[in-house]
Design brief:
67% helix; mainly alpha; 0% strand
Length: 72
């Protein structure tokens, strides 16, 4: 068995990070917060189906961003 030595403070920090990542309720709240912020910023509801959102983003990004072909 391999052994790794860590300072106690670093080990406690890693344990705290692991506990946060295992907290599914916290992750669900972050996921919901991201949905709400996205909806607030873009006026869209992301949900679980994002195929149309990808097409929308690509089309509008293409139309709004300057291109080298604009001056041809």
């Amino acid at each position: 068995m391999d052994t790794i030595q860590l300072p106690t403070a670093e080990y406690q920090k890693l344990q705290e990070e692991l506990a946060l990542l295992k907290n599914t309720e916290l992750l669900k709240k972050f996921d919901r917060l991201i949905d709400l912020l996205y909806q607030n910023k873009y006026g869209l509801f992301m949900g679980d189906y994002t195929d149309d959102l990808e097409e929308y983003s690509v089309n509008h990004g293409w139309e709004e961003s300057p291109s080298g072909w604009d001056n041809v």
